# Entry
Amino acid sequence: MPDENIYPISDRLLRRPEKERQLGRKGAVFWLCGLSGSGKSTLAIELEKRLSDREVHSVVLDGDNLRSTLNKDLGFSDEDRKENLRRVSEVAKLLVDNGMVVIVSFITPLDEFRKQAKNVIGHSDYFEIYVKTSFDVCRQRDVKGLYAKAEEGNVTSFTGKDSSFEQPTDPWLTIDTENASLDESADTLFQSVLKVIKF
# Structure
């Protein structure tokens, strides 16, 4: 067995509480999920900026960024989406175990995928944020032009059209970007995050 030749050194590294004390805050993973165009990436960018203004270092794991690097070998079948999110979850876990504030921005369409992320990262470190906006409003926004491409048949397995999006039933936080401004949505997210990461 290949794992017989693997010798992790985790038990000899600095412990997470020591790293959190150095950073002056608690680590956590804030997982933003929602339809394409709902505002996940916009909120992640804004949250990173606001945390930086408070001298809080954070890491953003964004779907398109990782799709073009770490996960560029994966497609958009349910199986590939699951593996995509498993890898992201493992990266997020590695970062939070080192005391980092991690902001994840992925569609994460199925409840199964969100449960997988929560189990990999750990229930106490996983904070699910549902960025709620209807398919019709996201289609009107169409910030990346993907909805138009999907209508023309140039994008397959498009979430909300060809493949399903299961609304989270019990998220830590819901942000309705259809009925709230960017500033209002960002304020809600930022204030909620601060309560989690403070000592």
